[in-house]
Amino acid sequence: QLQASGGGLVQAGGSLRLSCAASGFTFEDYTIGWFRQAPGKEREGVSCVSKRDGSAYYEDSVKGRFTVSRDSAKTTLYLQMNGVTPEDTANYYCAADDKMPCRGREVIHYRLSGQGTQVTVSS
After folding, report:
1. What is the pLDDT of residue 66?
2. Contacts of 113 (CB under 8 A, 6+ apart)
3. How many H-runs (helices) and E-runs (strands) does the chain carry?
4. C-alpha torsion angle, residues 91, 23, 96, 100 (rounded to 10)
5. What span, in angstroms and rounded, lies between the C-alpha atoms of 88 and 12?
6. Pairing relation of β-strands 117-122 and 90-97?
């Protein structure tokens, strides 16, 4: 199970920290990440962290603004969002997979995903 939280309403330029609590599977065996979906738009892979070496992927539009991290002791994934813009408005979901890599758009196809958390950025 994956449960995302931490979303809300924030002004452009502000910050949010999303959390994703994982349970029911061996956290260390899964690559885990975030994707988002805005109304009327396709799912977009945002970021992920590899289970192999902890390396991270970021979608181009969030590079330098968002930071992903995972805490194995707490089986929790985080997404620190700084300098948010209205274009970041979306429902954010965490997802995990034990076979797929942390690369490109793959995160939107991960086998496990849960309820999202809404992020709304006002201009």
Report:
1. 98
2. 2, 35, 93, 94, 95, 96
3. 0, 11
4. -170
5. 9
6. antiparallel
Answer whether 29's CB lies under 8 Å from 8's CB. no
Q: How many CA atoms lie within 13 A of 25 on its CB side?
A: 18
The string over 100-111, giving b where at least 16 C-beta atoms fall within 10 Å of a residue's C-beta and e elsewhere, is bebeeebbbebe
Structure tokens at 72: 């194995």
What are the structure tokens assigned to 116, written together? 């999202």
Tally of residues, the chain: 123
Neighbours of 89 (CB within 10 A): 19
pLDDT (tens place) for every residue of the chain, 123 residues total: 999 999 999 999 999 999 999 999 999 999 999 999 999 999 999 999 999 888 999 999 999 999 999 999 999 999 999 999 999 999 999 999 999 999 878 999 999 999 999 999 999
